[in-house]
């Protein structure tokens, strides 16, 4: 038995947050992912993370520039931005977070990421 696909109007909309961490060292994908998820858990709990739906895109993490993309639900973009901005250190190393932009498509996010 085949299921019908979800209509586009019922599908959950996504937003892509481009962010950067200024620091003296380059961080691995796992370190940044752990820092973001732990801050989201601290601020909103497991229930809140379920609503925000954060997905860290590892293929778009640029280690040399500490730049990455986080996909979230369109209703909770501000919550995710607050969590990123409130990160003060990653693995004991002080960082200064910066939100570069928020886009509605991955194509636009990729274009901005490549222009950095």
Description:
- It is a single chain.
- By secondary structure, the chain is of the alpha+beta class.
- The chain has one domain (19-115): Ribonuclease P, Pop5 subunit (Alpha-Beta Plaits, 2-Layer Sandwich), CATH 3.30.70.3250.
- The chain has helices spanning 29-52, 77-85, 106-115, and strands at 14-22, 55-56, 67-73, 89-90, 93-94, 96-103.
- The strands form two sheets. The chain has a four-stranded antiparallel beta sheet with strand order 2-3-1-6, sandwiched between helices. A two-stranded antiparallel sheet has the order 4-5.
- A hairpin with a 2-residue loop joins strand 4 (89-90) and strand 5.
- Helix 1 packs antiparallel against helix 2.
Helical fraction equals: 25-40%
Radius of gyration from the alpha-carbon trace, in angstroms:
15 Å
- Please give the order of strands in the largest beta sheet: 2-3-1-6
What is the quaternary state of this protein?
single chain
Give the DSSP E fraction (strand runs of 2 or more residues): 25-35%
The name of the CATH architecture is 2-Layer Sandwich
Characterize the main sheet.
4 strands, antiparallel
* Count of strand segments: 6
Distance between the termini: 47 Å
Class by alpha and beta content = alpha+beta
Q: Could you tell me the mean pLDDT?
A: 92
In CATH, what is the class?
A: Alpha Beta
């Amino acid at each position: 038995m085949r299921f019908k696909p979800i209509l586009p109007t019922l599908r959950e909309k996504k937003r892509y947050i481009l962010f950067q961490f200024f620091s003296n060292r380059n961080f691995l994908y796992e370190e940044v992912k752990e820092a973001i998820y732990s801050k989201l858990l601290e601020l909103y709990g497991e229930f809140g993370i379920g609503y925000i739906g954060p997905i860290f895109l590892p293929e778009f993490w640029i280690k040399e520039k500490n730049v990455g993309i986080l996909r979230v639900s369109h209703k909770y973009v501000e919550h995710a931005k607050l969590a990123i901005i409130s990160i003060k250190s990653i693995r004991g190393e002080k960082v200064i977070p910066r939100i570069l932009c928020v886009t509605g498509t991955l194509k636009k996010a990729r274009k901005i990421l490549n222009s950095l």
